[in-house]
Amino acid sequence: MIVVLALLLQAPIAGGVIDQGTFVIRADTQEVGRETFRVLERRVGDSTSGWLFDANARWTGTGRPALYKPLIEIGRDSMTQALSFDVSSGPAPLYISGRPNRNRFTLRYVSPGVERARELPADRALVVIDDSVFTPYLLVAWRARATPESLTVVFPRSAVRARVAIQDLGAESTTLNRDQATLRHVLISGGPSGPVHLWLGSGGRLMKVELPDRKLTAERLPS
User: Fold this and answer.
1) Could you tell me whether strands 216-220 and 66-74 are parallel, antiparallel, or unpaired per DSSP bridges?
2) Total domain count for the chain?
3) Residues 6 or more apart from 197 whose CB is under 8 A from it?
4) What does the pLDDT look like over 59-118, one tens digit per residue?
5) Pairing of strands 206-211, 196-200
6) The pTM is what?
7) Cα distance between residue 176 and residue 179, in whole Å
8) How far is residue 99's CA from residue 107's CA, in Å, rounded to a whole number?
9) Phi, then psi, of 202 in degrees rounded to 5
10) 174 partner at 20 to 30 Å CA-CA among 10, 111, 114, 200?
11) Domain that holds residue 137
C-alpha cells in the first residue's frame, strides 16, 4: 500500500487532484457505460490529510439507464472515514451514507418517503466497493502483497459484507484497449462477484478491471 500511495503522490495534478480519468465499461465487447473519476487530496495542498475517491459511473447499454456516484473519504491512515453515494437506477433516487463506528459500519438509506439503516460488523481495514463502479477497487489494490492477504469489503447498495483474498501477482502481460501491455496484476478472490482482476500501470494508477464471471471489463482511456 505504501508503494502505491508514494507513486500516486509523486506528481499530483493542480488543485489537489492526484489522478483523474475515464473508464469505458464493456459487457463482452459492447460498450455499456462510462465512468469518470478523480482521486483528490482530502484537503487541498495537504497530501498527508487523506484522500477523496470521487466517481461517476453512467450505465447506458443494459436496459434502464443507471447512474452511480460514490464519494469515499479516506483518512491519512488509509482507513475508510465516510461514504456518500447517490444512486439513480430504480423508480426513485436513493442516497446512501456510511460511516465506521467502533466495530460496526453503519449504512443509512434515504429515498423519497423512506429512511432506514443497517449496521454491519467491520474492522479498521474495511474497504467500500461496488459491483457497478470500478474506481474504488484501487483501494483494494493498495493493500495487495505478494503473499495472499485477507480483507473485509462492503457493498453498500446491497449491504453485503464479505471477506476476500487479495494477492499481488506482479507484472504480467495483458491487453489495454486492444493493445498489448505489461501491467501489475492484482487478484481478488472469494467475493460475491467472483474473481476480480485489477491491472495497474505506471505511478500505481488503475488501468483495467475485469470481472470474468459477469463478462465485464472497465478499461481506462488514454489521457
Assistant:
1) unpaired
2) 1
3) 185, 186, 187, 188, 208, 209, 210, 212
4) 997 677 899 999 999 998 888 999 999 999 878 899 999 999 888 999 999 999 999 999
5) antiparallel
6) 0.90
7) 5
8) 7
9) -60, 145
10) 10
11) 2-220
Rounded CA separation 183/104 (Å): 36
Question: Per this entry, what is the length of the chain?
Answer: 223
Number of separate helices (H) and strands (E) present in the chain:
2, 15
Q: Express each pLDDT in 112-161 by its tens digit.
A: 999 999 999 988 789 999 999 999 999 999 999 999 999 999 999 999 99
Q: Which three cell numbers stand for residue 26?
A: 464493456
Phi, psi of 192, rounded to the nearest 5 degrees: -65, -20
The answer to whether residues 70 and 130 touch, using CB atoms and an 8 Å cutoff, is yes
How big, in percent rounded to 5, are the helix, strand and coil portions of the chain? 10, 60, 30
Residue 208 has pLDDT above 50, yes or no: yes
Question: Which residue carries 493498495 as its cell?
Answer: 142
Q: Which three cell numbers stand for residue 119?
A: 449496521
Distance between CA atoms of residues 38 and 218, nearest Å: 16
